């Protein structure tokens, strides 16, 4: 039997068992020792991964009868490697068209991914469902596209209320706003900066994207073929501004959300927005509130003894703009992650006389071009939005617990191949790691969003001694013109940059809404791996992003470009379904933290 026939035969048995509501029959098709079912909305109306037969049985017990999934088919051609047969798949249920991915070992399921891809009758108005534009024929009192657009801008938020308000207009808020626009969900994006893209433009001058262009495409619109592999912050800012205009998003610039509270009786939010230009205040009443200010919250600035006596300049990395003007000066950067390295390199390039990085704990370092090897179909991905969607599905096809295990041998190979590079860094006093379990950079991003660096030049400066490193020590005291460390050493300083990251986004929720809501929602980001800065219990998926929370009608949108594109689809579908009164009964598994205060009935409002 060929690989494609093996996949098709398994899907036939699987589909038959589902239609019979035969949980035992379904479970017989899965491996006994290890199996995974990752579901994004299709069965659970949640983002959830079952990691054993018992968990799959629990999920099916609650969801099987109401899902009515059928017409399971292979989508393309299967492949086989290392004893694993795999293929993209498709299926449907009464309300949706769905996509997925299947991996078989020894004829049984090792991993299956099921995703709700498209609501029937409520498709994205793109591709074959694109709007007609100009209506042919004679129309009395016809309005032009521009007149309709201006009328919508005048009315939405004033005489007509939006269904959704997104707080934060960076790449995450913009990606979600585009999805909702194409789904016909009235939405306003509230952004405190003057223009779309300013979240990038306002960062330090030498900032570049750290992921390649083929990973960073936006919904419905790829970067042009002339776009650089890694773009500067200002290029990205310009692209975001153009994207907002081309997608026709309702984007309120120079506007700041001052407060938000949920009216339980009316099942809507009361959101106060201030126009920073004229001071006017507008009250919005959306049904759903989405926070897209980034998964991190406020700047984390440590308090050191004597900081108030420092005679130079102290600034958090989020407020540092350029190394220009620090020629001949002595600079201390506290932190050893991405921003710390980039700022150190910028200061050195601009002629600072001494640049010192303070590294409290070890850092994962990988060359940017080492970790981001282009996929075989890179040209296809850059040229086609459908190829991007296939790429995304392939990324969904590896549950995080499996990914952790697969990353370890990859980083063992990197450590061996780049041994000379790492030996030179270590000799310079820089502390290295590949994660507590050797799983490397991407898992560190998922777990704690910090503690790593994609090398674009700063590591060579460290290895050669051009950037000094103070490792394994902490700041004991800041003096008028220097920094004193716990080992008794002292470094002169004209500038101190705190590249010390950000607090969890729950702090922002506490300020904007209330401490009670923040406590109810809990930590945002992380997998519950019980590693540094990622406390357990294990969650299986990223905590509290893109899915229902323990508070009605509140959502979190965030992530790098790739995740913003991928996950905006599923959050937008959840919001569209609720707007259209499509039942969305949410499966809350016993094996993970369950928001007891939230019922499925409330979620379907």
The oligomerization state is single chain
Which parts are unreliable, with pLDDT below 50 for 5 consecutive residues or more?
591-605
Structural class: alpha/beta
What is the number of beta strands?
A: 27
Per DSSP, the total helix count is 20
Distance between the first and last residues' Cα: 49 Å
Rounded radius of gyration (Å): 25 Å
Q: Tell me, briefly, the overall form.
A: globular
The percentage of residues in β strands lies in 15-25%
Largest sheet, if any?
A: 7 strands, mixed
What is the residue-mean pLDDT, rounded to a whole number? 93
State the helical fraction: 25-40%
Protein name: indole-3-pyruvate monooxygenase
Keywords: Oxidoreductase
EC number: 1.14.13.168
GO molecular function, one term: indole-3-pyruvate monooxygenase activity
Your description of this structure?
This protein has about 600 residues and is of the alpha/beta class. The protein has 20 helices and 27 strands. Strands 1, 2, 3, 4, 5, 6 and 7 form a 7-stranded mixed beta sheet that branches. Strand 8 (about 165), helix 5 and strand 9 (about 185-190) form a beta-alpha-beta unit. It is globular and about 75 Å long. The two termini are about 50 Å apart. Its EC number is 1.14.13.168.
Key phrases:
single chain; 605 residues; alpha/beta; seven-stranded mixed beta sheet; 27 strands; 32% helix; 22% strand; Auxin_biosynth/cation_transpt; EC 1.14.13.168; FAD/NAD-bd_sf
